[in-house]
């Protein structure tokens, strides 16, 4: 591995024929998230079907916050494997290592700060058995905060488990899946390769790439927990401004997977939706991170992404708040209020 961000999908090699394969590989990429890793591992062990059926392994990207190997040994009690990168290689290369070290037929990349609820693996297994043609399957999920408190749920896509219709066109418009909810057959990664191109939005690109080649199944049961906190990749990308650059690169890559007659409309749709999202989250940069100049810059870039009433409103709001030195009352907490732009 040389480049931290591969330009093309990394090769995921087939499992050698002599290796005895479990049904599941739960691969846990981690980096400086030890305060969340305990509950992460426990959430898997609570529904562990045994080592013959499930591989569980933490792949650590040279964390510096604690002795992750010792933590894994303490919590896993010998049941959870551990691999440490010899140096920090970045999230994409760490995901690549996870995929290549996996031996199961179903691969669950469960980021070290996320969790699953009891019944997750049984439900996904049932869905794959019911719809064997699916290349991937995912459940409903709930956003949680640093203290494991629920914030809000994803919007329901189906009333009962099934294959998603017109899924390529839907997922190409907007990313409304979070990684802990998604499970992909290893054979799919072997055919399509791993994550590439960007640090922010790499999962969206992958879900669209899969949808372009395979049916995707879904269960509406909310069995995955995606954590929002100030030190994850998403938050760091917001503060650096990289998130907007990366996501527009993803929008362009997605064009390669779409029918020619759908490309222009979906691209414009995505840009408008994303402009709303980044305009609104400029408020988060202002209030949660205390970075008014960055908030103003993001609102301006959102307006450049797509000029509309919402992006103009938030650009004006940032100007006004900075001008009067506005601060949110101490008894009020900034909360993301999801807005449904598509359905």
Structure description:
This protein is an alpha/beta fold and 343 residues long. The protein has two domains: 24-227, Spore Coat Polysaccharide Biosynthesis Protein SpsA, Chain A (Alpha-Beta Complex); 259-324. 42% of the residues lie in helices and 16% in strands. The chain has twelve helices and ten strands. The protein has helices at residues 34-45, 68-76, 91-101, 120-130, 167-173, 186-192, 202-211, 233-240, 242-254, 263-287, 292-305, 309-324; strands spanning 24-30, 54-60, 81-84, 106-109, 115-116, 136-144, 150-153, 162-163, 182-185, 216-227. Strands 1, 2, 3, 4, 5, 6, 7, 8, 9 and 10 form a ten-stranded mixed beta sheet that branches. Helix 2 (68-76) links the parallel strand 2 (54-60) and strand 3 (81-84). Helix 9 (242-254) runs antiparallel to helix 10, helix 10 (263-287) runs antiparallel to helix 11 (292-305) and helix 10 packs parallel to helix 12 (309-324). The chain is globular, with a radius of gyration of 20 Å.
- CATH superfamily heading of the largest domain: Spore Coat Polysaccharide Biosynthesis Protein SpsA, Chain A
Compute the gyration radius: what is it?
A: 20 Å
Low-confidence stretches are: 339-343
Order of helices and strands: EHEHEHEEHEEEHEHHEHHHHH
CATH architecture title of the largest domain: Alpha-Beta Complex
SS strand fraction: 15-25%
């Amino acid at each position: 591995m040389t480049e931290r961000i591969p330009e093309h999908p990394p090769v995921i090699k087939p499992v050698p024929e002599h290796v005895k394969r479990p049904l599941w590989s739960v691969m846990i990429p981690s980096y400086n998230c030890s305060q969340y890793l305990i509950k992460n591992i426990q959430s898997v062990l609570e529904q562990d079907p045994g080592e013959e059926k499930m591989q569980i392994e933490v792949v650590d990207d040279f964390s510096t916050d604690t002795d992750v190997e010792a933590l894994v040994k303490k919590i896993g009690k010998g049941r959870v494997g551990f691999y440490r990168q010899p140096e920090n290689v970045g999230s994409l290369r760490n995901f690549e290592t996870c995929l290549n070290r996996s031996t199961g037929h179903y691969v669950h990349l469960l980021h070290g700060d996320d969790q699953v609820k009891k019944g997750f693996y049984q439900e996904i297994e049932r869905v794959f058995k019911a719809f064997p043609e699916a290349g991937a399957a995912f459940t409903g999920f709930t956003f949680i905060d640093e203290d494991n408190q629920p914030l809000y749920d994803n919007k329901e896509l189906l009333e009962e488990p099934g294959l998603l219709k017109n899924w390529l066109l839907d997922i190409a418009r907007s990313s409304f899946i979070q990684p802990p909810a998604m499970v992909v057959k290893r054979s799919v990664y072997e055919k399509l390769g791993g994550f590439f191109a960007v640090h922010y939005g790499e999962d969206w690109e992958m879900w669209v790439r899969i949808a372009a080649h395979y049916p995707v199944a879904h269960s509406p049961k909310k069995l995955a927990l995606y954590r929002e906190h100030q030190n994850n990749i998403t938050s760091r990308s917001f503060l650096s401004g990289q998130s907007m650059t990366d996501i527009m690169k993803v929008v362009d890559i997605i064009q390669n997977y779409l029918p020619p007659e759908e490309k222009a409309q979906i691209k414009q749709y995505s840009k408008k939706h994303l402009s709303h999202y980044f305009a609104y989250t400029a408020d988060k940069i202002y209030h949660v991170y205390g970075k008014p100049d960055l908030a103003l810059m993001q609102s301006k870039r959102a307006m450049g992404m797509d000029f509309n009433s919402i992006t103009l409103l938030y650009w004006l709001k940032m100007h006004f708040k900075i001008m009067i030195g506005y601060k949110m009352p101490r008894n009020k907490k900034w909360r993301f209020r999801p807005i449904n732009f598509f359905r």
